[in-house]
């Protein structure tokens, strides 16, 4: 299991478009990807769960990847969030 | 006449087409064969995705990529691994496909609409749309085909769903009226992107209006005229022609720098009330925010927003503006603006009483929350703090002391902020204008608020029709005051802006250029018109006009001379 804390920088937080980009990217990996936020574990491959978690810009989240390809998944997840999720 | 929210500008004249909601009622079945229900669900989802894909393609060519992505998002939502597994769980337990999809969508709708976040609330509409489309496919119900509507159609619906809007084309749809939605809802964004006039949140519109009725949609004022009279139709036809011509002429100024005819660059900012409005400023080509009225954050609630809530709001505006200036006015309460939970005392003369900066400095604890939020947000963009209703240098000094105290604390704690955050004065009282030379030495900028400045200079209540003739920025008393303030600012080397209505008045613009104003802040919809007016004047010509105007002795003479422009 690997994990890293990152801060969301895109203006609208985890909304439809950014959540879509993120969930689609994470869906490619065989490992479990979880976003830890406000004491909740959010399934990062589920757009619906990400939207429901209301993660706003400036929030710090912890990304946890567990399973095959976990290092690669975490690296892409961190890069996506730090680059503002294509916004 | 029906009233609603003016969500997309313009005028539409045509005939009503009510989008009928087909019945999605069904009798839930239990004890179904999971295998055949799973197959029905999968096939319906496939059909849904294929239809949505087509609609998204159509929308990306007619409206734009961003709007099409909302529809593509629906495909992601229905294919969401969590949603999918939950639906399949219910079906495996013996429920029919209809019950399962409805139960899971209703669950997400409830979660999204109860969230304390407007954007998440809007996603509830997407979930409803997906649910209804899926049920329609499963039940074999047909929706209204919008793309087959005849020319000059005004669409009337309870709510405009993204899938419905895919069929809308400017060729046949001249107006949109709905029973729900706000300026930031999907229907509004789409209507603006397609340049179709829209009035939203008109109560019972779909019930009151019938197919084939004549109708006028006034997207400027947010009005709808069912079965208009001959004279109403003529008036609106003329308005529409004028509007379209003006819009075409203004489109030339999109993306152009704001400069005078002889090439002097000036700043053209927007006045906003809510952080989301910053997006509107960007959409309308504003170059910054010249006035963010923070009172709106305090209204329609039971207690004051705390430091964190305010921080989020200011940061949001800063991020949307991407490093462009955001001038935020600290709480301007009192006078005609009451916020019940603040417990303001009834005053004999509220406009001469405990208002704005006076109230804030009397309630320093709550003011500190606002100042702290502003200093924190300065790490995310070019945030500038503006103090309303200043009458003495001591007020400015007190606020600067408070801010430097906050900065000291943040430095120790390692909180990020902009060490050069600018603190300026809104010049809106005669006292501030008279001591503008003193204020200019200690303020980082001035912004002239003409609405209050006129009222206090002319000692005329702007709401009282009997003295309305005195409420004019053209009065020599006001013009001299404005000229003096700009001179003081320039002498001290600080920028001077204007954020009142006068900044967008095409007759005032040359005078302001001549006096040396460097920043104009106007409502987002006035940006292009103001840019055009500024581009018409060279500084020299503006100075010639100002010279002539400043020799006139009465408001009537000034008005008469300016009306020839």
Give a verbal description of the structure.
The complex is a heterodimer of chains A (87) and B (565). By secondary structure, chain A is α+β, with helices and mostly antiparallel strands. Chain A has a single domain (2-82), classed as HPr-like (Histidine-containing Protein, Chain: A). Chain A is built from 3 helices and 4 strands; from the N terminus they run βαββαβα. In chain A, β2 and β3 form a beta hairpin. The mean pLDDT of chain A is 88. Chain B is of the alpha/beta class. Chain B has 3 domains: 24-139, Enzyme I, Chain A, domain 2 (Orthogonal Bundle), CATH 1.10.274; 146-251, 3-Layer(bba) Sandwich (Glucose Oxidase, domain 1); 267-562, Alpha-Beta Barrel (TIM Barrel), CATH 3.20.20.60. Helices cover 49% and strands 13% of the residues of chain B. Chain B has 23 helices and 16 strands. Chain B has helices at residues 34-62, 65-78, 81-92, 97-114, 118-139, 162-165, 186-194, 205-208, 230-251, 277-283, 295-298, 307-321, 356-362, 364-377, 393-413, 430-434, 436-442, 450-458, 476-492, 509-515, 527-536, 539-549, 555-562; strands at residues 2-3, 5-8, 11-18, 153-157, 173-178, 198-200, 214-218, 223-226, 267-272, 289-293, 325-329, 382-387, 422-427, 446-448, 496-498, 519-522. In chain B, α4 (97-114) runs antiparallel to α5, α14 crosses α15 and α20 (509-515) packs across α22. Chains A and B meet through α1 and α2 of A and α2, α3, α4, α5 and α12 of B.
Summarize the structure.
Helices cover 36% and strands 26% of the residues of chain A. Chain A is of the alpha+beta class and 87 residues long.
Question: Can you lay out the helices and strands and say which pair or pack?
Answer:
The complex is a heterodimer of chains A (87) and B (565).
Chain A: E1 2-7, H1 16-27, E2 32-37, E3 40-43, H2 47-52, E4 60-66, H3 70-82
Antiparallel strand pairs in A: 1-4, 2-3, 2-4
Chain B: E1 2-3, E2 5-8, E3 11-18, H1 34-62, H2 65-78, H3 81-92, H4 97-114, H5 118-139, E4 153-157, H6 162-165, E5 173-178, H7 186-194, E6 198-200, H8 205-208, E7 214-218, E8 223-226, H9 230-251, E9 267-272, H10 277-283, E10 289-293, H11 295-298, H12 307-321, E11 325-329, H13 356-362, H14 364-377, E12 382-387, H15 393-413, E13 422-427, H16 430-434, H17 436-442, E14 446-448, H18 450-458, H19 476-492, E15 496-498, H20 509-515, E16 519-522, H21 527-536, H22 539-549, H23 555-562
Parallel strand pairs in B: 3-4, 4-5, 5-6, 9-10, 9-16, 10-11, 11-12, 12-13, 13-14, 14-15, 15-16
Antiparallel strand pairs in B: 1-8, 2-6, 3-7, 7-8
Helix pairs in contact in B: 1-2, 1-5, 3-4, 4-5, 10-12, 12-14, 14-15, 17-19, 20-22
């Amino acid at each position: 299991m690997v994990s890293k804390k990152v801060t969301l920088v895109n203006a609208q937080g985890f909304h439809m478009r950014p959540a879509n980009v993120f969930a689609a990217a994470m869906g490619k990996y065989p490992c479990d990807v979880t976003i830890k936020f406000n004491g909740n574990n959010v399934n990062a491959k589920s757009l619906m769960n990400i939207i429901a978690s209301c993660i706003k810009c400036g929030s710090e989240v912890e990304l946890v990847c567990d399973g095959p390809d976990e290092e690669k998944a975490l690296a892409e997840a961190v890069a996506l969030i730090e680059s503002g999720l294509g916004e | 006449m029906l009233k609603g929210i003016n969500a997309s500008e313009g005028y539409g004249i045509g005939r009503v087409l009510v989008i009928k909601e087909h019945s999605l009622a069904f009798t839930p079945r239990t004890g179904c064969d999971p295998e055949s229900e799973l197959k029905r669900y999968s096939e319906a989802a496939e059909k849904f995705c294929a239809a949505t894909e087509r609609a998204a393609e159509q929308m990306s060519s007619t409206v734009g990529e961003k709007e099409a992505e909302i529809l593509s998002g629906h495909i992601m939502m229905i294919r969401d691994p969590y949603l999918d597994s939950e639906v399949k769980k219910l079906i495996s337990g013996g429920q029919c496909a209809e019950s399962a999809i409805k139960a899971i969508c209703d669950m997400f709708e409830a979660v999204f609409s109860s969230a304390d976040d407007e954007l998440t609330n809007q996603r509830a509409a997407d979930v409803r749309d997906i649910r209804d489309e899926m049920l329609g496919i499963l039940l074999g119900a047909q929706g209204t085909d919008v793309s087959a509507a005849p020319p000059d159609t005004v669409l009337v619906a309870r709510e405009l769903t993204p899938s419905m809007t895919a069929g809308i084309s400017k060729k046949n749809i001249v107006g949109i009226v709905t029973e729900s939605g706000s300026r930031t809802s999907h229907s509004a964004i789409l209507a603006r992107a397609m340049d179709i006039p829209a009035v939203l949140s008109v109560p019972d519109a779909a019930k009151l209006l019938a197919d084939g009725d004549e109708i006028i949609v006034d997207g400027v004022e947010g009005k709808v005229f069912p079965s208009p009279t001959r004279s109403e139709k003529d008036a609106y036809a003329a308005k529409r022609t004028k509007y379209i011509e003006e819009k075409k002429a203004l489109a030339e100024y999109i993306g152009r720098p704001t400069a005078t005819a002889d090439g002097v660059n000036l700043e053209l900012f927007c006045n906003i009330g809510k952080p989301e409005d910053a997006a509107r400023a960007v959409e309308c080509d504003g170059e910054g925010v010249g006035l963010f009225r923070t009172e709106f954050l305090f209204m329609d609630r039971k207690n004051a927003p705390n430091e964190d809530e305010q921080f989020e709001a200011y940061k949001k505006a800063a991020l949307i503006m991407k490093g462009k200036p955001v001038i935020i006015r600290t709480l301007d309460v009192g006078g005609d603006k009451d916020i019940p939970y603040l417990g303001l005392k009834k005053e004999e003369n509220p406009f001469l009483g405990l208002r704005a900066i006076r109230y804030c400095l009397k309630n320093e604890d709550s003011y500190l929350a606002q100042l702290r939020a502003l200093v924190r947000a300065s790490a995310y963009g070019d945030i500038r703090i503006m103090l309303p209703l200043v009458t003495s240098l001591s007020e400015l000094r007190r606020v600067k002391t408070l801010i430097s105290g906050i900065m000291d604390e943040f430095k120790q704690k390692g909180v990020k902020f902009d060490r050069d955050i600018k603190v300026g004065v809104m010049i809106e009282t005669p006292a501030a204008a008279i001591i503008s030379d003193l204020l200019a030495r200690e303020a980082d900028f001035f912004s002239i608020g003409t609405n209050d400045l006129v009222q206090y200079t002319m000692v005329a209540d702007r709401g009282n029709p009997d003295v309305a003739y005195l409420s004019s920025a053209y009065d020599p008393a006001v013009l001299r005051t404005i000229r003096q303030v700009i001179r003081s600012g320039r002498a001290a080397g600080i920028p001077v802006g204007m954020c009142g209505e006068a900044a967008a008045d095409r007759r005032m613009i040359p005078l302001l250029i001549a006096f040396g104003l460097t920043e104009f802040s106007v409502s987002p919809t006035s940006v292009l018109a103001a840019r055009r007016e500024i581009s018409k004047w060279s500084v020299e010509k503006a100075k010639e006009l100002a010279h002539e105007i400043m020799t006139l002795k009465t408001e009537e003479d000034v008005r008469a001379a300016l009306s020839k422009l």
